[in-house]
């Protein structure tokens, strides 16, 4: 019956969001949150990261979380994996997918991962060879694909070149990440069209940050170019070390709110997402960037103020706005 | 030489923004800010509001501000005017344009202006008759044109109907206002196409709020429908009484940043706008919503951290994002 285009929403808050939080989120609370998210209609949930507990203490409970959650059929439970050791831990935990990461920018790769891109590629190739012997899917997230905070513009050919190298290794999906919110709509449209044309067999995901308030505008541009799969983060959790105080990943509830209004089928239960998002401040000890959580959905209506209680100042106070 | 499409940016911070501020901004500071804005390349600046000083004490210095500013040729200096008394004050101050306001929604008009829409229309018709005898231009801002926080959806025909009534009175321009940030992209595109088709002789402005983070996405939709004129507010100043804590008007520097990256010619000097925006917290006593002010422009680059200072936790900390 429905003519609405199906989109796939992938939640990253418990990995990309929590890894940046100073306050450790209790393992049971992580499990309860992920179980709640599993009832929200996501296509994929990035559960945690199998990195060294010393490197990311916030996610030191990766095994316990993966084993504790109630897996819902149909949802892909993915985890970040930096190397073969992490891949082995992830495979032992029965993940559906591993997500590998490197930067398209040499400077950002060195700053973030402390090795050259070629060293990262060699390390990830080893991981791919291990995982390819199993039924577990492999996704590669390419950071700084729309700009590097140290180098600036990244040539589209550079991004497509790294996509080719990973596609040749047989990965299932690639995520183009706007790591520090440098993407703008016409750039996104151009990159997405080229990526779609060149890699029609790959599962292609766009990963936006709202650092400069363009995440939803960039999403429109990606949709226009045929993209149907988006990462997003509950509450807009996830920061950017190069922009202190700036907002983080595109906010799941704001993304879904817009997409559903625009007639897309995200399969997401926005009520449940908002309930889950409202719990975040209690878990991490601070407010989240989500504006939708503050303002409510567009049709969450307000009562008419009784005439006698309208303060004098309020008359005309919003004129013209 | 340039093939870039010209867009017209209209600054509303000193009216739509300041009127909501508790802290009175000193008259000299207002004048200095507007003089700085006059050097930024705006098509229009909404200077102040000729309402009753009791109704909006924040703008009680309307005459002094209008007389104090250095008017730059080519910029339209407009002011909000609620009635004939306000129009007379505005005309005495030598404004280029008066901006009249009413809501498309009956409930919002009653809550905001404490009269019915028909009463507002009659009052504004009187203003138009006074101003039409002068060379001063007349713009009408239609509030809640994309949704009412009390009534919900507003039929497009309702908006077009009010536009017709004002067009018949001979106004020069009409602004469609998303007063509480309820607009979404496909709705904006549809309304703008209809408005453009029906009123090709009118100067048509779109006025977005970022309450639910869709202001820049809605701007893309309006551009797509041929709109070339946008209100915006320095720093994102301007609130929404129905969404406490939510962001306000679309932020000038974020709007211009995106539009220029997308290849449009706004004629705005973004450097100067950012300098002006950075002064706002000192004037109003609190932070502004602008993310761009925190994050900087996309090509404001950062130095590469020295290898030995990259903390252990930072390695992998931003992976996948």
Automatic annotation (TrEMBL), chains A, B:
<dbReference type="InterPro" id="IPR043594">
    <property type="entry name" value="HMGL"/>
</dbReference>
<dbReference type="Pfam" id="PF00682">
    <property type="entry name" value="HMGL-like"/>
</dbReference>
<protein>
    <submittedName>
        <fullName>Hydroxymethylglutaryl-CoA lyase</fullName>
        <ecNumber>4.1.3.4</ecNumber>
    </submittedName>
</protein>
<comment type="similarity">
    <text>Belongs to the HMG-CoA lyase family.</text>
</comment>
<dbReference type="InterPro" id="IPR000891">
    <property type="entry name" value="PYR_CT"/>
</dbReference>
<dbReference type="InterPro" id="IPR013785">
    <property type="entry name" value="Aldolase_TIM"/>
</dbReference>
<keyword id="KW-0456">Lyase</keyword>
<dbReference type="GO" id="GO:0004419">
    <property type="term" value="F:hydroxymethylglutaryl-CoA lyase activity"/>
</dbReference>
<keyword id="KW-0479">Metal-binding</keyword>
<feature type="domain" description="Pyruvate carboxyltransferase">
    <location>
        <begin position="7"/>
        <end position="274"/>
    </location>
</feature>
